[in-house]
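thought: user wants a sequence for this fold. calling inverse folding tool.
action: design(structure=
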């Protein structure tokens, strides 16, 4: 083989090696691609590269803000009322097509709320302990209460404020039955965008909130049957009453602790 032939073979080998190394090394391939692009006149490669890098960085920041955010620092993150009204309206519409009566309708909404309340039993005390609403100083570590009035007050104030940004409007005890308590809401947020037809006037979409309250009471050791009832008044046409009917064991424990 002549020197000329060996030189051409060596050049072809070097060229092939360069191509394989560019395939195996993404950085090298990117560098060669950017170099060849920039060498073409009139092609705005630098602008395109800057835009891609900026968008990638912004996406990374948004992803980190959503998924890397600590659970205890999510207080104050509010959901748009319009988005919630649309979502809840779709939930009501979906449920309506799959039930045959008002009682079944409210039961399904209550089951959905119960699943939410079961998670709030642990989440709300944790966030309230680390980042309390009423004071900059942390309160004492949360302990289980055995008395009825503190847990009802907790639901009326702390839980309701966490969910809707304000406490409930009233907390009353039934005059006819000792095992019944009522939490009144003059303008329930979740039902503002719901229009109940006249033929279903007994329906209360506040059953979702009733399910949340029932799960919280069950998790705290105060089993009860919680239902929602629409009680409109001339001043408050969307007034809803959350009726809490306690189990006999709760009243027996309350009577035993009455002197303590």
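)
observation: tool returned 260 residues.
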């Amino acid at each position: 083989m002549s020197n000329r032939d060996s030189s051409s073979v060596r050049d072809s080998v070097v060229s092939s090696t360069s191509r394989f190394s560019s395939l195996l090394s993404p950085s090298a391939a990117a560098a060669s691609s950017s170099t060849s692009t920039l060498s073409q006149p009139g092609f705005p490669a630098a602008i395109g590269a800057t835009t891609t890098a900026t968008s990638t960085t912004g996406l990374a920041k948004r992803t980190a803000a959503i998924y890397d955010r600590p659970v205890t620092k999510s207080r104050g993150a509010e959901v748009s009322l319009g988005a919630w009204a649309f979502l809840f309206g779709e939930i009501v519409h979906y449920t309506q097509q799959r039930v045959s009566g008002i009682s079944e309708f409210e039961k399904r909404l209550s089951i959905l709320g119960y699943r939410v309340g079961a998670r709030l039993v642990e989440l709300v005390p944790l966030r309230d302990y680390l980042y309390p609403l009423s004071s900059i100083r942390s309160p004492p570590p949360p302990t289980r209460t055995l008395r009825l009035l503190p847990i009802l007050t907790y639901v009326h104030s702390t839980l309701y404020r966490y969910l809707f940004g304000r406490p409930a409007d009233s907390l009353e005890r039934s005059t006819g039955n000792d095992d019944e308590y009522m939490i009144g809401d003059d303008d329930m947020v979740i039902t503002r965008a719901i229009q109940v037809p006249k033929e279903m006037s007994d329906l209360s979409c506040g059953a979702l909130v009733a399910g949340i309250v029932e799960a919280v009471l069950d998790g705290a050791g105060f089993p009860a049957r919680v239902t929602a009832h629409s009680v409109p008044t001339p001043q408050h046409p969307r007034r809803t009453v959350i009726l809490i009917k306690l189990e006999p064991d709760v009243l027996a424990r309350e009577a035993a602790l009455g002197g303590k």
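thought: summarizing for user.
answer: Here is the designed sequence. The domain at 81-256 is CATH 3.30.1380.20 (Muramoyl-pentapeptide Carboxypeptidase; domain 2).
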